[in-house]
Design brief:
22 strands; FAD/NAD(P)-binding domain; 5-stranded antiparallel sheet; 10 helices; 5-stranded parallel sheet
């Protein structure tokens, strides 16, 4: 989880100051004020302040045993808490992919795990058909899913360390993890007068430059261009932050570079299931001016004659006017992520359903069928246009 230690950075000639906060910056003087009272001059300033976990405004949120999981330090705190205190029960508030991964982690450690979610199915980005299968997997692995419930308060527990009170019931647990998403950490940028975008993140161009001279932004705090919607949005993902940071570094170093945007690929694992998606769904497509049509099909990740053959589900979303691919989702015990990677490339290249229907994919029975589920899904959806 740690790419380099402060000592390794210093050996490379980089002055790293940990446990130090940037208290403010003066764009005219080109200086940054630090929490230890010192001031640093700059020629270029990079804002990489990341994001902040969303938390409900409820009593008891600061109690010991209540956590978020945003960074490495959070993970160490959770691990230390589990090691130093007897814990039998955990509650996770939220049902996104981080919540799903942590449900597996807690359950695998022997904790009786409950997921509390205001919606009806986990992972709301994914189609309801896939959401129902995620719920089945949680139930199969003895994870309790409490739908359409929201936290109201956290109190001291009776039989356990904590009591999580929702709008419907009370849960005695030893640990509560809030996994409700994040928001861009832009307070420093706003105080400096750096312009924010419509998403609430820092507005940047394709070079990651802000509207303030000499100031760049990268990562969760900044916007990113969505190649399907043709507009800037905020997409807090680690791989994107890494790429944006490299673009900033090249530009500051005098090697002009641009970040071409994203199509929105992401994935997670839930016990035995691979879950992945890319592009946009029907609701997002409508808001972007498209006329979406979609299909969900099920097939074998590899031919059924092979002993390890497993089912994989594919959902495709396309524009009914042009046949252009807009998004895709996949779920299964094998082959879901690899299909989404192919479909992300298709989105990046602007392919339509006709292109997908005969896409040249490597074929051999141990890996796929002659007609892959991608081909079949594209042909199925093409009939609906």
């Amino acid at each position: 989880m740690i790419a380099r230690t402060p000592e390794e950075f210093r050996e490379a000639g980089l002055d790293v100051r940990i446990n130090t906060r940037a208290a403010g910056a003066d764009l005219r003087q080109r200086t940054v004020s630090l929490s230890d009272g010192t001031t640093l001059p700059y020629d270029f300033l990079v804002l990489a302040t990341g994001s902040i976990p969303r938390l409900p405004d409820i009593p008891g949120i600061e109690r010991e045993g209540v956590f978020t999981l945003k960074n490495y330090t959070d993970a160490l705190r959770i691990k230390a808490y589990l090691q130093n205190r007897p814990c039998r029960k955990a509650a996770i508030v939220g049902a996104g992919f981080i919540a799903m991964e942590m449900a597996e982690s807690f359950q695998s450690r022997g904790l009786e795990t409950t997921v509390v979610y205001r919606g009806s199915l986990p992972a709301r980005r994914w189609d309801r058909e896939f959401g129902k299968l995620l719920l089945q997997e949680l139930n199969r692995q003895s994870v309790t899913f409490l739908a359409e419930q929201e936290p109201v308060a956290i109190e001291e527990g009776v039989n356990n360390r904590l009591r999580l009170i929702t709008n419907q019931e009370e849960l005695d647990v030893d640990l509560v993890l809030f996994s409700l998403g994040v928001r861009p950490n832009v307070q420093l940028a706003a105080d400096m007068g750096v312009k924010l975008g419509n998403s609430g993140a820092i507005k940047v161009n394709f070079s990651q430059a802000t509207d303030s001279e000499g100031v760049y932004a990268a990562g969760d705090c900044s916007e990113v261009f969505h190649r399907i919607c043709k507009r800037y949005t905020n997409m807090p993902l680690g791989d994107l932050a890494n790429k944006q940071g490299r673009v900033v570094g090249r530009n500051i170093g005098g090697d002009a570079a641009s970040f071409p945007g994203v199509v929105g690929a992401q994935s997670f694992k839930l016990f035995n299931l691979e879950v992945a998606a890319t592009g946009i769904d029907e609701q997002e497509a409508t808001s972007c001016g498209y006329h979406p049509v979609s299909t969900v099909i099920w097939g074998k990740a590899i031919p059924g004659m092979m002993p390890a053959a497993k089912q994989v589900g594919i959902k495709l979303v396309a524009d009914s006017t042009t046949g252009k691919l807009l998004g895709a989702q996949a779920l299964g015990e094998m082959g879901a992520v690899s299909r989404i990677n192919v479909l992300s490339c298709a989105l990046w290249g602007g392919m339509d359903l006709d292109d997908l229907s005969h896409l040249d994919l490597a074929y051999a029975p141990p890996f796929s069928s002659a007609w892959d589920v991608i081909h079949i899904a594209a042909q199925n959806l093409r009939k609906k246009l």
